[in-house]
Amino acid sequence: MADFHGVFPYLVSPLDAEGRIRADVLGRLCDDLVNSGVHGLTPLGSTGEFAYLNQAQRVSVVRTAIEAAKGRVPVVAGVASTSTADAIAQAKTYQKLGVDGILAILETYFPLQDAQVESYFRAIADAVDIPVVIYTNPQFQRSDLTLDVIAKLAVHPRIGYIKDASTNTGRLLSIINRCGDGIKVFSASAHIPAAVMLIGGVGWMAGPACLIPRQSVALYDLCKQARWGEAMALQRRLWRLNEAFARYNLAACIKAGLAVQGYEVGDPVAPQPPLTAVQRQAVEAALRDIVQ
Fold first, then answer.
1. The pairing of beta strand 6-9 with beta strand 203-206
2. Which of the chain's ends, N or C, has fewer CB atoms near its CB within 10 Å?
């Protein structure tokens, strides 16, 4: 199985006025991120607004990321659906396009029991020949992955990673203790990355890394070298950006920050609102304090 680790920015999905993916903008962002030292790219994560895109737009995003990466870093594409059959179809499509891994996300309308949650993720992993990262975000999912389900999925030969956005760091340690080497933990922006690395995490998949890739890679390197004092000093500085994002819509914040940096990514997909002028100023100020 491939060794996924380090900083995987959650890519935005820039659209033009006709709803087409702006491949030129996304491609330049991907290339710049790779040149900044990130360890992978994740299209169609939460920051990629997967819930607001149709399948043609999703395919365009994934294809653009693969073409821009040029094999330099792995591309792990998000698969999300309320339907198992549709999720399998997405996963197979992205594998054919050439992704290196799948980030499996469960969307639910009616609540599900553990057995159905497990079967959804297991079916995706059974359908592909590439590594699968299971994703849990109880803030947005009606049917979350329990520790029991995670432990059962961890023995699947292609499920080797979990990206957890629960905000509960103790839960991450419980996953690590329960599953051992069976599954590796990626942090989300809802967690403090340095703290997750300290307890045994392997990196983070998060939208803010799109805006501060070099600083994120520097933080990861300090953690890997166990230079915890320096790592926490940098983490405290970077955390200001997470604090700003926690107050507003995440995709709107990332897109506003990228616009400041010269990427014409546009506003978040409707009906999400763009940031107000005051909110945009708060994001710009937090970003300016970090990258100056």
1. parallel
2. C
Catalytic site residue from 120, 161, 163, 184: 163
User: Contact, 266 vs 15, CB < 8 A?
Assistant: yes
94 in active site: no
Q: Please tell me the pTM assigned to this model.
A: 0.96
Q: Which residue has the tokens 């890679």?
A: 217
List the chain pLDDT tens, one digit each, 292 residues.
Answer: 679 999 999 999 999 999 999 999 999 999 999 999 999 999 999 999 999 999 999 999 999 999 999 999 999 999 999 999 999 999 999 999 999 999 999 998 888 999 999 999 999 999 999 999 999 886 666 668 999 999 999 999 999 999 999 889 999 999 999 999 999 999 998 899 999 999 999 999 999 999 999 999 999 999 999 999 999 999 999 999 988 888 888 899 999 999 999 999 999 999 999 999 999 999 999 999 887 6
Other beta carbons less than 10 A from residue 63's beta carbon: 18
Catalytic annotation, pick one of 94, 120, 135, 263: 135
Give the whole-angstrom CA distance, residue 231 versus residue 218.
8
**Annotation says 96 is catalytic:** no
The dihedrals phi and psi of 160, each to the nearest 5 degrees, come to: -120, 0
Choose among 178, 222, 286: nearest CA to 6: 222
Neighbour tally for 37: CB within 10 Å: 16
